[in-house]
User: Fold these one by one.
Assistant:
Number 1:
Amino acid sequence: MKKSFFFSLVAAGLFTASLAKAADAEVTLVGEGQCAKCALGKSDTCQNVVVVTKDGKEQVYYLAQNALSQKFHDNVCTDTKQIKVTGVVKETDGKKEITATSIELVKK
């Protein structure tokens, strides 16, 4: 009985660990890069967002403030451009946020 309980605990721990790793998986989003303040009027300060349209619905992903997103901001502050962002998505204060590891303009 003790062995089966032990193995159940181990299996539950492994399952939880695999879910946590899946939640931290990198994704790639392609959409309209914009400024949350200047273009969308949804922020008091400049911040990059990528607006992704899927199944006719728009989803706004805020880019976490890091060196990469701050350096890229001049590309989208006053002009909307197609961008591709790779990073880890999480929910923060009811908003989708992506911590970018790569940002690039989409070439047409």
Note: The two ends are 63 Å apart (CA to CA).
Number 2:
Amino acid sequence: MNLVSILLQATSSQSGWSGILMMVVIVAIFYFLMIRPQQKKQKAIQKAREALSVGDKVVTAGGIYGKIKEIGDIYMLIEIADGVRVRVEKTSVFASAEDAQTQQK
């Protein structure tokens, strides 16, 4: 009886380690297939936003095309037609108009 309980404890401790190992493998797979590519994409978008300057043509997240007239700390003033200016957050600027057209093709 004593030997049986020792063997059961040994097998249960091994299954505990294999369960933990399996969880680590799953987390690693999610990280490399989902989280890491998304972080790279966000960094690229942020870098493109920082490279924008006055006079660049851009597209907002809502699909509005315009030309940057002013850049503030958290906003951009975009002219969408002659005399029509819209103030939008920097984070809502999707890309430059040229980048958006190349992505659509």
Note: The first helix runs from residue 2 to 51.
